[in-house]
Amino acid sequence: MDALKLLASLLLIPASAPPPAPVERAGEVSILAHGPGGVSIEGKSTEVSIAEEAAVLLFRVPLAPIDTGIGLRNRHLRESLEVEKFPDATLRVQRGDLQFPAEGSPVERQVTGELRLHGQSRTVPVHYRAERASGGAIRIEGSLQLDMRDFDIAPPSYLGLAVSPAVEVAVGLTVDGL
Amino acid sequence: MALFSTAAGAYPSMIRQGYTQCAACHTDPSGGTLLTKYGRAQSELLLSSRWGSGQEDEPSRAADFLFGLLRTPDFLNLGGWLRYGYLWNTVGGKLVDDRLLQMRADGAAELRVGPLRAEGQLGYASASSAPFTELAWVTRNAGGANLVSREHWVGLAFADDTGLLRGGRIYVPFGLRILEHTSFVRTATRTDIDVDQQDGISVAIAKESWRMEVMAVLGNYSVRPDAFRERGFSGYLEVAPFRTLALGVSALVTRADAALGSSGPTLRQAYGVTARASPWTPLVLLAEVDALITTTLGSGGASAGHADWLQADIEVVRGVHLLTAIEGMKPPGGGPSSVGFWGGAAWFVVPHLDVRADWVRRSTSGSLPTNTFLIQFNGYL
């Protein structure tokens, strides 16, 4: 029986080994929202990860750690995003849609991804720039714009200051294994 | 050095929190006056000592107008100031003056109906402060108590509240809108936030990365006779390339038929550059350099000078600030040059109360150095 299992497993070994899973070395994410009178609200986090699932690259940002610089504003952000119910934002991009840079030849393109936020999924255009360093790691900088209302998020309003529904998101990530 | 009143809550140092703009917290888009409801909340959350409140706690009801005793509708902002201080002046090491100062007792209201904006202040100035409040008098009781109004205007907001067109008595848009209204940069340019407002028409625009205001100065109608009223324009443009850095330029050109110390019509010009920066959150640096030109029209005589200011504000713990500044001035007209050094501390004890202590040492060529010590208590309703 054991011999049969061994034979079966040997037959199932692919011709070439699968590529290693991407591993993020460092990352940062920033969100930028706008209010009246020239007010801008920026939230930052260093928690962003990348994983590969069935030919899809999955970027994940935990929402609770995003820091806007004011504690109460962080709380309002978490409440607005209902992070206890929807702790992460994810972006799925087909690996085949991406162009990976060779060393010394950065790539800058626009692709389409599926953004899941607040329990809602929407297709969004994503602009990215990728550059491979001499050690093989790739530095990725991506950005997208979203409308909170598309994700069933009510634009926050606080003491007469209403935040515009348009939000800019920027992600930077250094990755091995791509 | 007679009056140090920090006449309003102008905090260009809020850039430490990433607030390069003023309009969200103040009813004047260039800052320094009545607080909006959002501004009241930020005053408690960002300026005052927290006294055990959690970082994520909502501001207390007591931060509202009259400690929350009177809830105002959304279209109405109310506020008021009550400020007293005690001052000691020495010259050459000898005490020459010490007294209680009634600095400010003003109330203010702002109305917002659709795009319409209207604001007015009305206050009481005691007899002892008469010489220092005359430029804002409503009544004219020479040597006695008076009613004062530092600002009153009506305006229209436009472009999603990023713009405001208004007319009335307005804070003159020039330079850093700092509390230290006796600083050389504010006195030499006559642009303090105490009594140097002018009647006129202004347009202000506040965007995320820049803001500006330009004002047609039609004269201060608290000043009489008309020959002494200055007319012209004043304005600034400030650009914020980063959330913690703002760089600006200012210009002021006014003409008056008569001026103290002048034999005829006088053209007064000031051109300034400003910088606000917070390289480290607890530290804010404020700098202003102004060129001053005064011309006696008809005689062709023009004279130049300058006024300069460099201030550091360190928030050592929430609500407690150490303040220091150096300043210099050479007045137009060939007067002696002066330098000054400021040191002090301010504590925003609770949202409605701050206390401040200042020491200012000034030296003028050919004169004995002066030292001024001031403590002040400011209540905000």
Describe the structure.
The complex is a heterodimer of chains A (178) and B (381). Chain A has 178 residues and is mainly β. In chain A, 24% of the residues are buried. Chain A contains two helices and eleven strands. Chain A has one domain (21-176): Lipocalin (Beta Barrel), CATH 2.40.128. Chain B has 381 residues and is mainly beta. Chain B contains three helices and 17 strands. Chain B has helices at 37-47, 130-133, 184-189; strands at residues 76-91, 94-113, 116-125, 146-148, 152-158, 163-170, 198-206, 210-219, 231-242, 245-256, 266-280, 283-296, 301-317, 320-330, 338-350, 353-364, 370-380. Classes of the chains: A mainly beta (178), B mainly beta (381). Chain A binds chain B through residues 34-40, 42, 69-72, 74-75, 158-161, and chain B through 17-21, 23-24, 29, 36-38, 40-41, 45-46, 54-59, 74, 160-162, 206-208, 211, 243.
CATH names the topology of chain A as: Lipocalin
* Measured distance between first and last alpha carbons of chain A: 39 Å
Residue ranges of chain B: pLDDT <50 for 5 or more in a row? 1-8
Mean pLDDT of chain B: 92
- Give the oligomer, counting copies of the same chain as homo and different chains as hetero: heterodimer
What's the count of strands of chain A?
11
3D shape of chain A: elongated
How many discrete structural domains of chain A?
Answer: 1
User: What's the architecture of chain A, going by CATH?
Assistant: Beta Barrel
Question: Based on helices, strands and strand pairing, what is the structural class of chain A?
Answer: mainly beta
Task: Determine the fraction of residues in helical runs of chain B and give it as a percent range.
Answer: under 10%
Pattern of helices and strands of chain B: HEEEHEEEHEEEEEEEEEEE
The CATH superfamily of chain A is identified as: Lipid/polyisoprenoid-binding, YceI-like
Structural class, from helix and strand content of chain B? mainly beta
| Average pLDDT level of chain A | 88
Q: Would you identify the regions of chain A where 5 or more consecutive residues have pLDDT less than 50?
A: 6-15
- In whole angstroms, how far apart are the ends of chain B? 27 Å
Largest sheet: spatial strand order of chain A? 2-1-11-8-7-6-5-4-3
